[in-house]
């Protein structure tokens, strides 16, 4: 049985003061939450968050550079994220793919670098609206997944998370329906199961894209949806806690 995981991706939001207030409010309500919980603040806020949360909450980066170190002005290394107390890091978010030119190959290199630094990668995959309308959702997801499997091997998914984030659902208020999401989650698990059924069965696959308290329960009830990667709603403690509380019951 897979333990549910809910991760907040704060994107480029927050100051030290607002981060402290948000983390403290989440911690105040987290005792009844059975899911694993994570937060991915902007890089500069990672020390603030890591100092407050303790072991109960995973702290993660929103991205990392694929190289270990070097002359890459403005970039952040996996080594530093680990040093700051991160447990995980998002790779391949659609905003990185579309706005910053992260190709499948580069995402695969970032995934590999994350693991080399002792970080659990949260690999984001997802199709655009035009790709969905053209009937190529599965082809796109397969291409994005295969690039990582070809680079790191299926064994690497024993310590990784996958997040299905349809681009058309991110920040739009229009989430994928539970059925639409489950179909893609099932496809992801099935594709990886062709390489290693055990690893695919244990892999946590999160859904992201306009998750809120009002739709989380329906999404998380699906058999292959193991939690969520939450954007806007992770910035409001009550809403985020309600989403964390909506995960399905699990037994270890
Ligand atoms: P929203 O929850 O704001 O749609 O963002 C989803 C997302 O991109 C999480 O990584």
Describe this structure as you would to a colleague.
By secondary structure, this protein is α/β, with parallel strands linked by helices. It has a domain of 135 residues: TIM Barrel. The chain has an 8-stranded parallel beta sheet with strand order 7-6-5-4-3-2-1-8. The longest helix is centred in the middle third of the chain and has 16 residues.
List keywords for this structure.
globular, 252 residues, 15% strand, 8-stranded parallel sheet, TIM Barrel, alpha/beta, binds 1,3-dihydroxyacetonephosphate, 8 strands
SSE topology sketch:
Blueprint: E1 5-9, H1 16-28, E2 36-40, H2 46-53, E3 57-61, H3 78-83, E4 88-91, H4 94-99, H5 104-116, E5 120-125, H6 129-133, H7 137-152, E6 161-164, H8 178-193, H9 197-202, E7 204-207, H10 213-220, E8 227-230, H11 237-244
Parallel strand pairs: 1-2, 1-8, 2-3, 3-4, 4-5, 5-6, 6-7
Bound molecules: 1,3-dihydroxyacetonephosphate (13P).
1,3-dihydroxyacetonephosphate (13P) binds at residues 9, 93, 165, 170-171, 208-211, 229-233.
Short description:
With 252 residues, the protein is α/β, with parallel strands linked by helices. The protein has helices spanning 16-28, 46-53, 78-83, 94-99, 104-116, 129-133, 137-152, 178-193, 197-202, 213-220, 237-244; strands at 5-9, 36-40, 57-61, 88-91, 120-125, 161-164, 204-207, 227-230. It contains 11 helices and 8 strands.
- How much strand? 5-15%
C-alpha geometry: globular
The quaternary organization reads as single chain
CATH superfamily of the domain at 104-238: Aldolase class I
Total E-strand runs: 8
CATH class of the domain at 104-238: Alpha Beta
């Amino acid at each position: 049985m897979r333990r549910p995981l809910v991760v907040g991706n704060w994107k480029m939001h927050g100051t030290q003061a607002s981060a402290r207030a948000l983390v403290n409010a989440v911690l105040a309500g987290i005792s009844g939450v059975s899911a694993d919980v994570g937060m991915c603040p902007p890089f500069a806020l990672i020390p603030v968050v890591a100092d407050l949360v303790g072991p109960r909450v995973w702290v993660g980066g929103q991205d990392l550079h694929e190289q270990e170190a070097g002359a890459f002005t403005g970039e952040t290394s996996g080594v530093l994220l680990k040093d700051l107390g991160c447990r995980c890091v998002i790779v391949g978010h659609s905003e990185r793919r579309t706005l910053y030119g992260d190709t499948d190959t580069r995402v695969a290199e970032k995934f590999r670098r994350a693991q080399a630094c002792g970080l659990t990668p949260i690999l984001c995959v997802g199709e655009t609206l035009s790709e969905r309308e053209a009937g190529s959702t599965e082809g796109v997801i397969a291409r994005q997944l295969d690039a990582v499997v070809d680079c790191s091997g299926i064994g690497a998914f024993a310590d990784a998370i996958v997040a299905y984030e349809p681009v058309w659902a991110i920040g739009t208020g229009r989430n994928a329906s539970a059925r639409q999401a489950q179909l893609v989650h099932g496809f992801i698990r099935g594709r990886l199961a062709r390489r290693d059924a055990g690893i695919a069965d244990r892999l946590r696959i999160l859904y992201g894209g306009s998750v809120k308290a009002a739709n989380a329960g329906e999404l998380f009830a699906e058999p292959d949806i193991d939690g969520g990667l939450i954007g806007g709603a992770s910035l409001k403690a009550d809403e985020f806690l309600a989403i964390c509380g909506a995960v399905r019951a699990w037994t270890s």
